[in-house]
């Protein structure tokens, strides 16, 4: 999330279900996971990303991840869609 607009410029899917679906379909370029997200979800997406060779970047809170994605609520995880 190096630019000032965070993830807003990239094609991003937000949320656990959408993120996991993209990883399973081989369409996720990178996954962002909030460190304060529910452990059950985090461990599930970590296993999927490991299996499919997708890089995970950790963000300190769900609030910060949601803000980086341009939404007003927290997000447990988000994925950048491969172009």
Automatic annotation (TrEMBL):
Which keywords fit this entry according to its UniProt record? Ribonucleoprotein, Ribosomal protein
Q: Which InterPro entries match?
A: Ribosomal_eL30-like_sf, Ribosomal_eL8/eL30/eS12/Gad45
Where is each Ribosomal protein eL8/eL30/eS12/Gadd45 domain found?
A: 10-82
Cellular component GO terms, alphabetical: ribosome
Task: Show the Pfam families listed in the entry.
Answer: Ribosomal_L7Ae
Keyword Ribonucleoprotein tagged:
yes
Tell me the protein's name.
Answer: Ribosomal protein L7Ae-like protein
Organism whose genome encodes this protein: Paenibacillus rhizosphaerae
Query: What lineage is on file?
Result: Bacteria, Bacillati, Bacillota, Bacilli, Bacillales
């Amino acid at each position: 999330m190096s630019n000032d607009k965070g993830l807003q410029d990239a094609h991003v899917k937000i949320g656990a279900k959408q993120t996991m679906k993209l990883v399973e379909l081989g369409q996720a370029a990178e996954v962002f996971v909030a460190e304060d997200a529910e452990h059950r979800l985090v461990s599930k997406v970590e296993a999927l990303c490991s299996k499919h060779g997708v890089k995970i970047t950790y963000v300190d809170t769900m609030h910060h991840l949601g803000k980086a994605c341009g939404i007003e609520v927290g997000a447990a995880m988000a994925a950048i869609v491969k172009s």
